[in-house]
Amino acid sequence: MLHAEHLTKRYGRRPALTDCDLTIPAGRLIGLVGPNGAGKSTLLQLACGLIAPTSGTLRVLGSRPASTPAHLARVGFVAQDTPVYASFTVADHLRMGARLNPSWDQALAERRIAQVGLHPGQRAGRLSGGQRAQLALTVAAAKRPELLILDEPAAALDPLARNGFLGNLREFVAELGASAVLSSHLLDDVERVCDHLVVLSGSRVQVAGDVPDLLAAHHRILAPRDELDRLPTGVEVIRAERADRHVRVLVRAAGGLPPIPWPVEPVRLEELVLGYLTRASESSAAGAAPSAGEVRR
Questions:
Q1: Would the pTM of this model clear 0.85, i.e. be above it?
Q2: Residue ranges of the ABC transporter domain (predicted)?
Q3: CB neighbours of 261 closer than 8 A, spacing ≥ 6?
Q4: Which domain holds residue 223?
Q5: CA 202 to chain centre
Q6: N- to C-terminal Cα separation, the chain
Q7: Is the residue at 19 inside a domain?
Q8: Position 286 confidence tier, pLDDT thresholds 50, 70, 90
Q9: Backbone phi, then psi, for 148, in 5-degree steps?
Q10: Does residue 206 belong to any structural domain of this protein?
Q11: Pair (240, 185) in one structural domain
């Protein structure tokens, strides 16, 4: 669905993305997570063709982003502020969608509008934040794209509205048979609906993969402080926390963890993400940004 090689984007001297290699398979609902300023919005805008890379390559659905009108029709985008036209009614938005998109599904749009309680005569400027998000999602999905891209569309919503939006998103993706990328700094949202994860921090991809595979490859161990160097070769230390005379360590062993003499526990998705974000933050503060494949002993 998306393939990037050495993808880099700078704004002046400030790097937003640096030398990113990333491959995302089709048929996934991808969670893109990271702190503010990590490069999430930049990656999504590159994928939509709204901006161009400084260097490197990016292909979306097999082509350069927004290379042709036909390619644009295959991608639906909901920006961070869930933009709608304040003076347009809900029905105006659907008529606009039908005029602009050759594969527009009016029946789907009308059904979804009714399901979320929007009246066709309501003006968008009078809708709540949750209602505007639902309208923007409906317009993006009713063009029947192969890929839905959503840039933190639920960040400003209250818990009830966010719950409804995420439920509709999952239904849309299943109904369309599409892939979707959901950028969010709310890990609970990602854990609820996504089956593939990309962690961005410090303008770099820290880790990416299907969620079950990532959880299976990561472990928490409790080792004596002075024996941590006995970890088997190929076991990557993501984060280490000192606790009395022991060290609590988050490790990655992609090929399976070899036998070790210390307690081993599974990890939760939140712990996995925070481990990579903490490592990236500490490495950045020390003047070195690690890549996803760096192996430590």
A1: yes
A2: 2-227
A3: none
A4: 212-285
A5: 15
A6: 34
A7: yes
A8: low
A9: -105, 130
A10: no
A11: no
Give the lowest-confidence range in 8-22, 122-136, 222-236: 222-236
Asked whether 165 and 134 are in contact (CB, 8 A), the reply is yes
Where does residue 261 rank: exposed (0-12), middle (13-18), buried (19+ CB within 10 A)? exposed
Whether the CB-CB separation of 206 and 199 falls below 8 Å is answered with yes
User: Are 251 and 279 members of one domain?
Assistant: yes
CATH number, domain containing residue 193: 3.40.50.300
CA–CA dist 31, 191 (Å, integer): 8
The percent of residues in the chain predicted with pLDDT above 70, rounded, is 95
- For the chain, the domain total comes to 2
Closest CA to 166 of 147, 141, 193: 193
Nearest to 168 by CA among 141, 190, 199: 141
- Residue 296: what pLDDT? 37
Distances (CA, A) of 197 to 154, 170, 191, 215: 18, 16, 9, 11
Calculate what percentage of the chain has a pLDDT beyond 90.
Answer: 57
Sign of CA dihedral 289, 2, 188, 271: negative
Coil, strand, or helix at residue 70? helix
CB of 136 closer than 8 Å to CB of 84 = yes
Length of the chain: 297
